Each structure stands twice: as C-alpha cells, then as structure tokens.
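Before relying on records like the one below, remember that each one covers exactly one chain. Contacts with other chains, cofactors or solvent are not represented anywhere in the record.
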Amino acid sequence: MNETVEEQPAQEKPAQEQPTKEQSTQEQSPPSKGGMKKRKIIILGAIAIVVVAGALFFYFFAGQPLKYLLYPSQQVLARVNDEKITVEQFNKELAKVEPPLIREMLREEPNNLLERIVVRTILLQEAKKQGISTPAKTYKDAEKNPLPPEESIIVEFIGKKFSSPPEVKSEEVEAFYKVYKDRMGGKPLKEVAPAIEQYIREAKQQEALGQFLEELRKNAKVEVNQERLQKISANPPEMNTEEELKQALASGKPVLVDFGANSCLPCRQMRPVLKEIGTEYSEKTKVLTIDVYKNQNLAREYKILMLPTLVFFDPKGKEVFRNVGIMEKEKIVGKLKEIGMST
C-alpha cells in the first residue's frame, strides 16, 4: 500500500513591512515653495558671511589687501615718505640694467637696487617741493635732451642746488702737486695747475652731493619690507669652503684658487673661464673659488688686498704664482702646465 505524503508548504519568511501608500506619498513629497525659499536664503547668507569673513581676515590679519594677494607684482616693497615702491616698479628698474651680469648680481642683492630707487624717489619728492616739473617737449627738445622725464627733473634739481662751483685755493693745488709730482711726467706746476684745480673742484662737488644725499636719506621716512625683499632675491653662486681648500692642497695636484666675492664684477666675469678649466682638466688640477668676505681668515693668511686674486699652488701645496685682476684662459692653462699639470 503506497503511502502518499502530502507536500507541506515551505515556511515563508516574514515579509518586510511595506510602507503604506499614504506614508510613501508623505516621505517623497517635495518641500513647499516657502520652505525652499527659506533654505536658499539661509545658504546664501552663510556663503556671504564666509566670503566677508575671509576678506576681512586677509585685510586685517594677513596685512594685505586681497588684490595684493591676487597680483603679487603690486605688493609694496617699500614706502618712502608714504609713497609706495612696488615689486612691479622694482622689476621694471631691474629690467633696464645692463649688462645682464650686473642685473643678475642685483637680483642676488636686491637691496642695492632698491636703495637707488629710494634715493631717486626722495630726490623727485624734493624737486616737486621746489616746484620743478617736466615741461612739455617737442621732438626737437627730445633730441637735445634724451633723458627720461624723471631723470630730467633730478638733473635740474641738482643743478639748481649746486649752481655755484666750490672754491679751490692755490694752496690746495700746490699741495696736490707736491704729493703727486712723480706722476706729472716732469711737467711744471704752472702747466698742470688748471687740470689739478678742475680735479679738486669736481671732487669737492661729489663730496658735497654725497653729504646732501646722505642728509636727505637720513631725514626721510623709509620703510622696507625685508621679508618681501628676501623673497624676490636670487641665490648667489656657491663658492668653496676652507675645508675644501685644505683637501685640494693635499690632493697632489696643481691648484688654482680664485680669491674673490660674488659682489665683485671682475670676479664674476672670471667665473665662466674658471668653470671651463675646472671641467676640462678635472682629473689633472683643482680649481676653487673662495669668498674673501666669508673667509676673512684666509684673506689675511694669503694677504689678499685686491679682487680678484688668482693664486697658483704646485702639487705640493706651495704657492708659486699669483695674478691680480682678470687673466685669460690660455695664460691660466699655460701657468698650470708650467707648475706641474700633466698634459
């Protein structure tokens, strides 16, 4: 007898509770127009507060108006009696400097150029106080006086300030002649007196002008942003250390040392030549550059009086020759070979 087993229905899992149609409609229905408007107002108000707060922070706490942050060239580098000198003005003046090597040196020490701009600004301010201004010019006037307008104002101001040439006494001429008689080529005092008098007069004018500019600069209210000045400065070329000099002198190779400074124009003019020699003969000689201002003990030890001074050492580290001033590449190489550099 076959048993029939009734199939039991599988036990069903409890179904998740579905939201009623009324509940679904309530949850998905969009907010009313009034609610949306209120929300927009709140959001826009919050954005406005953030923007205003940010602007106020930059203005009062960062110390710079927002436009200076957006346009760095308009940042104030210095103030001269409350007149601004901007980074843009500095860069324009720097671009005028020739040759490029001097421009590069001024970029490394921007305070030198900034000081010139400051003094010029003071002179222009003083000239304007005296009522000196640039007259309207025709093309014919431009041919006679090619100076820029501001330079013309300064020249006129200085000319009026020192319109009377300084007096030169005969005793001064005679004293000068006695000191430098050996340089007069055997000429008598009567013959060279006019030239000596003119030389002394020009020297007195330069001294008086220097004192006048120093007094103006002293009395002016000048504020320089040193942090910003540092930011626009370039790094100077690296030079060798005292320790590297000791190692070179003990290397058993001929050594050439350029005692100079990054602020010395002839020294900088020599650098490419020395670099070429150092590269071409790197296995046969040592070429170093020493900054005498950072290594004053070495300057005293080797009795460096003028820059640049090239000092040649033989393979034993003994000084055998020195040259003051610029020296041609061929002569340098020839001297190195002469003191022991292998060919």
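The chain is about 55% helix and 10% strand.
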